[in-house]
Specification:
Layout lengths: L7 E6 L4 H13 L4 E5 L10 H11 L3 E4 L7 H6 L1 H21 L4 E5 L28 H21 L2 E7 L1 E3 L12 H14 L4 E5 L5 E2 L1 E3 H14 L6 E3 L7 E2 H11 L5 E5 L14 H6 L8 H14 L7
Helix pairs in contact: 1-7, 2-4, 4-5, 6-8, 8-10
The chain binds NADPH dihydro-nicotinamide-adenine-dinucleotide phosphate.
């Protein structure tokens, strides 16, 4: 392990994605001389291959790892690709933790998600419930692969005393999200859709599903600050939920209205109930986080949506479409 006062080298896998870019922005605003940050994309190496993974760990000799890299997608992409989500994420996760162990990394923070919890459960969901029952069938591949990260963390701790832990974010959105119409999450998908409606002179904004499901959404820059806090200050192996408060859960319909407002769109919002809704809700408790950070201020949803829409409108050249 490293001694206190020594420089930390922090390797971020998936550093070019939605969450990675947000961490990079927060870190750049801080300028902490004791930390050197390295942000990886898939172009630096394919983490589903162990030889490429260990090559990157030898090249950068990280002391700490934030492991974000994953095959990620929304409801509809998951429903059609459960096998791919399971296999690719299992490979990436095993390779990253194995390379971390082989190269003496002191701490790893990996990423689960609130959508991997049991489908039939009590609410609110908390960190003790990860393995309590089968996940929703729509995304079983992604969910089981994510749950195995917690199994790996426990195993590395029991057998080798490693401090590998995980965070469980709720739905994330923000700049650098995936705005593709086919494999995106709900917020970027709706932003893209309304953007196209307006561009084509339309006045009907159609949301897939009933609009009734409830979700907790976290702005990527808020999540970035919380993940950095976990890296520096949270010392358990057990996961920690990083979510907005339970009272801030909102319906898909209300999210669509906030997006419409951010675009100054005054046309009609329609709900296509022939399309799947996914889980009705997955309310998570952030009590553990609130015990550690009682005063953390989350960005107001409307403000974060407005910022994201503005970013999308003025970054058509770099946005993932
Ligand atoms: P993105 O899809 O925005 O980014 C994924 C990142 O993983 C990219 O940097 C991508 O590289 C990299 N990557 C994918 N496959 C490979 C591979 N085979 N080898 C190396 N790198 C790879 O994801 P997010 O930022 O949204 O998600 C980050 C983490 O947070 C993930 O673990 C996800 O499961 C989790 N999470 C996300 C939520 C959300 O709502 N978005 C909710 C809860 C958890 P490249 O850019 O080169 O393709």
């Amino acid at each position: 392990g490293i001694m206190s006062g020594e420089k930390k080298i922090i390797l971020v896998t998936g550093g070019s994605g939605l969450v990675g870019k947000a961490i990079q922005k927060v870190v750049n605003q801080e300028s902490n001389k004791q930390e050197e940050w390295i942000f990886l994309s898939s172009k630096d190496g394919d983490l589903s291959k162990f030889d490429e993974t260990i090559r990157l760990f030898k090249k950068y000799s990280p002391t700490h790892v934030i492991h974000l890299a994953a095959m990620v997608g929304g409801l509809f992409h998951n429903m059609d690709h459960n096998l791919d989500f399971f296999r690719l994420n299992m490979l990436i996760n095993d390779n990253v933790l194995r390379a971390s162990f082989d190269s003496g990394v002191v701490k790893v923070v990996s990423c689960l998600s609130t959508c991997i919890f049991p489908d039939k459960t009590e609410y609110p969901i908390d960190e003790t419930m990860v393995h309590n029952g089968p996940p929703h069938s729509s995304n079983f591949g992604y969910s089981y692969a994510k749950r195995m990260l917690d199994v790996l963390n426990r195993g590395y701790h029991e057998q080798h005393k490693c401090k590998y832990t995980s965070v469980i974010p709720c739905n994330v959105f923000g700049p650098y999200d995936n705005f593709d119409l086919h494999d995106s999450h709900v917020i970027p998908g709706l932003i893209r859709k309304l953007h196209d409606v307006i561009k084509n002179g339309g006045n009907k904004f159609t949301v897939m599903g009933s609009g009734k499901p409830l979700r907790q959404f976290i702005y990527s820059l808020d999540l970035a600050k919380l993940i950095i806090f976990v890296l520096r200050e949270y010392h358990d192996v057990e996961p920690i939920i990083l979510s907005v408060d339970e009272k801030d859960e909102i319906s898909i319909a209300d999210s669509a209205r906030a997006i419409a407002k951010a675009f100054d769109f005054d046309g009609e919002i329609l709900f296509d109930t022939s399309k799947a809704d996914g889980q009705f809700k997955k309310t998570a408790s952030n009590a553990k986080l609130r015990m550690l950070l009682p005063d953390f201020q989350f960005t107001l949803f409307e403000v974060a949506i407005k910022d994201t829409v503005e970013w999308f409108k003025s970054n058509q050249d770099v946005a993932r479409l």
